[in-house]
Batch of 4 targets.
Target 1
Amino acid sequence: MNEFDAIDLRLLDALQADASLSNQDLATRVAVSPATCLRRVKRLVEAGVVERRVAILSADKLGAGLSAILEITLDRQGAEHLDAFEARAVQEAAVQQCWRVSPGPDFVLVVQLADMPAYQALTQRLLTQDANVRNIKAFFSVKRAKFDTRVALPSPSA
């Protein structure tokens, strides 16, 4: 599914803004019938365009006020070593995002933790006990200027 018409794009835009809308409210917002809305959203979900619908929580209000971006460089970069580290990283609840990148470090992790002791515990579990981790570079957030989960949408197909 590579081509989207104006209705698909309005639906995707509305869902990115508020995935909790009822089908009726979504249909009204996009100016289509509820049946059309339901059929199109189902098609977008089945095609994998809509991966999932989630609630975005306030980390600060839940006691997870320390955000960090970690650059991880491994000693050995064979596929089995990269896969092994990635498997361990994605199992950590504090790891919100895990990116395998190139060039530069092997991985970039976005982590959300309660505080510096929680960060220290994570680094002990995930990084310093792994003999294959050569280098860790951590960047700690002092201010979040922007946070958005929206994907820029293409222009509608003719």
Target 2
Amino acid sequence: MADCLFCRPQREIIARNEAAIAVYDSFPVSPGHALVLPQRHVVTIWDLEDAEYDACFRLVRTIQPILAARFSPHGFNVGANCGEAAGQSVWHAHIHVIPRYQGDTPNPRGGVRHVIPLKAKY
């Protein structure tokens, strides 16, 4: 799609493979926040062919040590927002790889469970 900002991202490419590229997020939530983008335009990761899905998550694994070496985080969150109700705001599938740092939030317990704050505690 000509008007999709993820179809032709204008930013540093961290790594790539046969079906995906990894770039830094333009609005990072932490230093090193990256996105894995399938090269084919689809709306969510559920729309990817099996080989594309596998390639995207292989690229997540490829960039993790690159981000670890460059930014020295203490952990990572990995996730995808699929659909408006899940918070998706760019209609091109993408996977967030978010480095996390000791003290970046007072209580990180629950990690991605905090997308619904009142249900995060267990």
Target 3
Amino acid sequence: MEIVELEGYLTALIAWPVNVPTGAWLPPIWGGRGWRVPAKIAAPAQFEKFVALVSGFMRELDREFGRQPSRFETSVLHGLSNSARVAGLRAWAKGFMSGLTLGSQGLKWRNEIAGAAVRIIAANTSPSAPPGPQAIEKIASAVFALMSQRASRGPLGALEVSPASPAATR
């Protein structure tokens, strides 16, 4: 995943927590479906660094969302020029929808607020959506609406990975 798609993916995991085994959210990041770790991060030190970087990014996103007032200012989407914004919004949405569909909950609506928020995100990131200047703000508002529906508003705890080592999964 590129950074914009990764942000969308991690945002979904924060805003719409899914019930998946610890660390099962990692393989989609490197483009896998199982625990086969890519060779470039297969060494234990490389794998630990990779996990530390991804979980650190996830924690930073969670901190930003948890600030009062909640913010989405650190989003990588804010740094995109107008020409790159459309592609960035679509990549972010691809990651976000991947995160929403992870696990058994999938896209089952919790309530009308959550359903409306997901529809707003989809409407502002679809290929047919006009690239309006307010798209990022609409997406941020929808993310905050989803976050208000979370069962827990506390900060993320330890983001542990599966006890299987990367070497054991090759």
Target 4
Amino acid sequence: MGDTIGLAFKYCYLTGREIRLWGLRRRELTQSQIGRILGISRQAVHKAYPLIDSKVERAFKEAAETGNLEIRSINLVDGVMEAYSVAQDIQVFVSMSNANGLKIWYLYEGNCGQCKLERSCRRALEAEAEERGIPLSDQDRRDAPTRLALRIFSRYMGDA
């Protein structure tokens, strides 16, 4: 179900300060609020946005190229790319988060119960949901990782 691209991708695009700023932005704080938290001006925050966006976009495009994925949409602020694997004929989400770095999620009905990575996928998805402020029900937590991934990432389907 979930397959990482590799450790070389984890945070290599954003500096520590950019990661912190990006995380605050994802919480929908104003530029002034972020500036106060980081001890920088609102203008510095404003100037950082395009640089961060270009780095996140580059990470997604590299992931798409590496995984032979057709990009459908990218949400730079939330760090989610919706894509399609022509070779496997399945929907794919690529997420970028503090919890998991850059991670590719292939959405297919696999045999998660017998997969040795099932627990790892579930923990990674629960961390994605927590970081994104997405509440999970007890049923969500019992669902197969593929269903859990769809629950988490479906809100980003068709983003432009």
